[in-house]
Amino acid sequence: MCSVSGAKDGSYKRIFQAVTARSLIVQLLLAVEYIHSKGVVHGDLHTGNILLCLPADIDQLSIERLYEKYGSPASEPVIRFDGQPPEPSVPSTAVLPIWLGKASEKFSLPESKILLSDFGEAYRPSTESRYSSHAPMSFVPPEARFEPECGLSFSADIWTLACSIWIILGQRPLFEDILATPDDITAEQIDTRGNLPLRWWEKWAARHTYFDESGQPNEGRQVRSWEDRFEKHIQLPRRQAGIVGFEVEEKAAVMNMLRSMLSFEPEKRPTAQDILKCEWMKRWAIPDFNKWAANNSL
């Protein structure tokens, strides 16, 4: 297996074909809807925990054919820092694992079966309170920062699910996290989704670093809107890679879906079941998923 993030890291283009992306997203949403229906919050949704399944015939490959298809494992000598020979109990060489993946754009629709993994942060809100998020910084829902005392619940998964969907659709994360601080991420969230709830805004000590008191960006600060991010993170990389993008109607539908999922107020976010009924799912994503499902078993 390789993760969705691993498939992107293995690609110069870092883009999935549109039909593949739609199928991946429906499968991911169905997985989240299922665990939520069982009263479980995943707690760490991101593309590193979404695994692309190996081809069904991999168990039938001979060792020779496996190496021919995926490459032979490389070995490295084990060398001590002090230059002394290893202890007798230490092997003289280490074997590096084969990467059983491929570049994201090379995954076809029939190959787009996923598995949601890593439930180490999962919990049941009915029996356990969770006051912090261990998701990657750019995925952390804002309530984990501004109202941790209220506890996290299913709506926190919806926020991180939206961030994951964005990356599956495009090339770059919705909120840039390279050399970023939590305050930088909050500013990006406001640039994208509008003003914070007043109670959070007043609590945010660093707000004047990015905005004036009325909530307008400080002079000279570069602000990237939702539309700008969609163009530069999703549409432009697709055009540059020669990969089909999203037409006007579909773009509007997927943006409406993501906007609702990224509501600052947790209680205003849709449930996973609600999202399955939205326009983008019904008109674009689920039809491609059904094409995949016709030839695959879930």
UniProtKB/TrEMBL annotation:
It comes from the Eukaryota. The lineage of its organism: Eukaryota, Fungi, Dikarya, Ascomycota, Pezizomycotina. One of its GO terms (biological process) is mitotic DNA damage checkpoint signaling. InterPro entries: Kinase-like_dom_sf, Prot_kinase_dom. This is Protein kinase domain-containing protein. SUPFAM superfamilies: Protein kinase-like (PK-like). Residues 1-281 form the Protein kinase domain. It comes from Penicillium bovifimosum. GO terms for molecular function: ATP binding; protein serine/threonine kinase activity. Pfam families: Pkinase. One of its GO terms (cellular component) is nucleus. Transmembrane segments: none annotated.
